[in-house]
Write a structure and sequence with these properties.
Length: 287
């Protein structure tokens, strides 16, 4: 089984529509893919309607959190999307994305970059506007060569010259909310130092004590030594370890299925979830 538990669509900051995402996941030879758009479940319906035979969809989201000034991304799987408290928090985060983006654009203009709201809105389309859309605008303008190169202190990284804060969840509250909605929580790319400051190992231990289920270990932003260190930490803390592509379509270089999750870990995630269940494609079967 090939299982990729972290992928984005145009419902947030990917370039594949939800339908294209599931078709491309099947084409990449995946058995299971998770749709984890930022702070939204808006892509679920389209993805489910287009789900190919033989591919199973795990519904989820990547929740924007902050702890002691450090950005934290929390992957939430198989929660009840209608649970009101978690839905309200997702809406607060989404509603703050547009004013935050406008502030970042103003800062970039003050730095001499000819980026406009109209350009960023065009790139975002129907998705929830975020930093990757602004980063794409910087690539279009020739300011940086790639989207990843925009996520530096010089530009859009946490605390960078053009960075602006938005409403974000406390990760301990995120764990509580997802659990209350019947879901499972995994800390996304927790040691991606290229993106800026990372959450400490002591904070990961506290989150584990608070009910965090796992950490994403096999990820393009973790080198070999980092993966080994995280795997050892997970063993100490009793956390599950996942692997994922963090696919964004053409916006980033990672490919669907570039990193995958062990089937036993996937099985444990599905066993722990009570808010929703994996959906096999038409004519397929749950594995």
């Amino acid at each position: 089984m090939r299982i990729d538990l972290h992928a984005h669509s145009t419902a947030s900051d990917g370039t594949d529509t939800p339908a294209e995402l599931v078709r491309n996941a099947a084409g990449a030879g995946l058995d299971v893919v998770a749709l984890t758009d930022h702070d939204t479940v808006r892509g679920y319906g389209e993805a489910l309607a287009a789900l190919p035979a033989g591919l199973t969809l795990v519904t989820g989201a990547e929740l924007s959190c902050r702890l002691d000034g450090v950005g934290v991304h929390m992957l939430a799987y198989l929660f009840d999307p209608e649970e009101p408290e978690l839905a309200r928090e997702r809406e607060l985060v989404r509603d703050d994305r547009t004013p935050r983006a406008r502030t970042m654009i103003d800062k970039l203009q003050d730095l001499g970059v000819d980026v406009t709201w109209e350009q960023v809105a065009r790139i975002a389309g129907d998705g929830s506007v975020g930093r990757p859309h602004i980063a794409t605008a910087l690539v279009e303008l020739g300011v940086v060569p790639t989207v990843s190169d925009a996520f530096t202190p010089e530009w859009l990284a946490d605390g960078g010259r053009a960075y602006a804060e938005k409403h974000e969840l406390d990760p301990f509250e995120a764990v509580r909310l997802v659990k209350a909605a019947g879901g499972v929580t995994v800390l996304a790319h927790p040691a991606a130092v290229k993106r800026g400051r990372c959450v400490s190992e002591s904070a990961m231990a506290e989150l584990a004590s608070a009910g965090l289920d796992g950490i994403e270990v096999d990820h393009m932003d973790h080198d070999t030594d980092t993966r080994a260190r995280l795997r050892g930490l997970a063993a100490e803390l009793g956390l599950l370890t996942t692997g994922s592509s963090d696919y964004h379509g053409s916006r980033k270089t990672c490919r669907l299925g570039e990193y995958t999750t062990d089937p036993e870990i996937y099985g444990e995630i599905t066993r722990r979830a009570t808010g929703a269940f994996p959906v096999p494609g038409a004519g397929g079967r749950e594995r």
